[in-house]
Amino acid sequence: MTYAPFRTRICAFLLDYFVIVIYGIFIVGSISFIFQSYITPLFSGSPVIAEVTGFLMMTLPISLYFIVCERSKWQGTWGKKKMGIRVVDGSGQRIGLGRSIMRTVIKFLPWEVAHFGIWRLMLPTNYSEITIFIILNAVNLAIILYLIIPLTNKKRKNVYDWIAGTVVVR
Fold first, then answer.
1. Are the CB atoms for 69 and 76 separated by under 8 Å?
2. Could you read off the pLDDT of 75-124 as tens digits, one per residue?
């Protein structure tokens, strides 16, 4: 197996991020505009309701995109397909649903923890400001680790690859 270079993986993620932005602008933007009177209260009262609403509108659909694509016959998202790379298990085979879910959950965990902290920073909460800043700094540390760890091993595996038992190959 030829392991995907880190730069190629970053480019694939940037292409997928383009898909995420388009989704956010057109789908979420349209829904938010059309149903503004229903949506606005969901993001202005409770941080828990705001976080759950954001999760259902953004994180869940985006996670499903990664889960479904990476376990499909493509073995990767649109960005990975464009960059000529795919996600496989340790034997070079297509990953199953369990591995795909695990990989995606770990990949987007810092994103979701950041949302947790941001909503509690923006809306009234029982958490102290110091606690929220600690949470957000932990997210920054996780992101830095996600960027550094693939550079420390020959297979260019990331945290979520190690945990899910996956590897990204050409």
1. yes
2. 999 999 999 999 999 999 999 999 999 999 999 999 999 999 999 999 98
Q: Is the dihedral of CA 31, 18, 107, 75 positive or negative?
A: positive
Which pTM value belongs to this model? 0.91
What tokens appear for 143 in the block? 């992101």
Measured CA distances, 154 to 50, 83, 94, 118, 169 (Å): 41, 19, 21, 36, 12
d(CA 114, CA 27): 22
83 class by beta-carbon count within 10 Å (0-12 exposed, 13-18 middle, 19+ buried): buried
